[in-house]
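User: quick one, fold this
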Amino acid sequence: MSKSTVGGLLLMFALSTTAAHAQAFPPDPAFIPGTQGSANVHVLGHVPLGRSFSGSDIEMEQELSRPYVYTSVMLQTGTNIISIKDPAKPFVLWQWRAANPELHTGTGAMDNKYFKLKGRYYDVQSLQFGGQGPDADIGAHVIDVTGLPDTSKIIDKGFIRAPETPGGFHNIFAYKHSDGRVLLVTTVG
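Assistant:
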């Protein structure tokens, strides 16, 4: 390679790195306190829910008279119900956590959906427990949330077990069929 070719390549390299440095982006505003949002999206409230990677899904009720958000809690395995009646002051209204979390391997709570059946409201939380633990056949946990905001009226309806698919359910989708049935469609672990 000639000296002029090497010199040209070095000059191109020097110019390209200068141009790349000139296009540096500002820091991510999500990591600068007080600067979240954008020109058309503004943060109204914030609820700290735990360490990084502990949340796995979020579900919002769609009826204006029911201002509730359901979040899935991985690893600790649970569900949070958050009231957004006052969007500027959201708060955790109720929490469920699986008993004996140290016995459960796997990712825990993954996906969360609410549905209405015969005038009652329910929340279903998909669960993924490893095949070695005591509850490998559990796919989901169901609660009746009709009585909210009175948390004493939440009714634990129990677990959906699926021994034919050990490892639980990952994604779930609640679907109301035209014949009135509510179907739960899942992907399995």
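User: anything notable?
Assistant: The two ends are 57 Å apart (CA to CA).
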